[in-house]
Write a structure and sequence with these properties.
- By secondary structure, the protein is an alpha+beta fold.
- The protein has a single domain, classed as Histidine kinase-like ATPase, C-terminal domain (Heat Shock Protein 90).
- Helix content is 40%, strand content 34%.
- The chain contains three helices and five strands.
- Strand 4 and strand 5 form a beta hairpin.
- The two termini are 18 Å apart.
């Protein structure tokens, strides 16, 4: 049975990132994900949001699904001007911590990150 948990928030306030990490941790706990994997997944979701912020998005929509493992779709929302951004470190970290990472771009800017644990 597929279960979705959706969060939409502004990328400009770091307190929202803390709330996002808490929400992701709660979904991980509900999905019976072990503590170490949950910590890795929280880092990856947060880094995905930072990537979108670096690319010029002012908001993000995060959808967490537990239908086949744990999946997070992190999509940029509202951008005045998109840019490529400096995201090499974040992308390296994400690729080391999750089993699958799919990137979608608008031009040179990353607009969506799909993570699978």
């Amino acid at each position: 049975m597929m279960k979705d948990f959706k969060i939409s928030f502004c990328l400009s306030d770091s307190q929202y990132f803390t709330a996002l990490r808490l929400a992701v941790g709660g979904v991980c706990a509900a999905a019976d994900i072990d503590v170490d994997a949950a910590e890795d997944f929280k880092v990856c979701v947060t880094e995905s949001c930072l990537i979108l912020k670096n690319c010029g998005f002012s908001g993000a929509d995060v959808t967490l699904r537990t239908d086949e493992g744990l999946v997070a779709e992190v999509e940029g929302r509202s951008a005045d001007r998109l840019s490529e951004g400096e995201n090499e470190l974040s992308l390296s970290l994400i690729s080391a911590l999750v089993s699958s990472c799919k990137i979608t771009k608008q031009g040179n800017a990353i607009s969506k990150v799909v993570l699978k644990l």
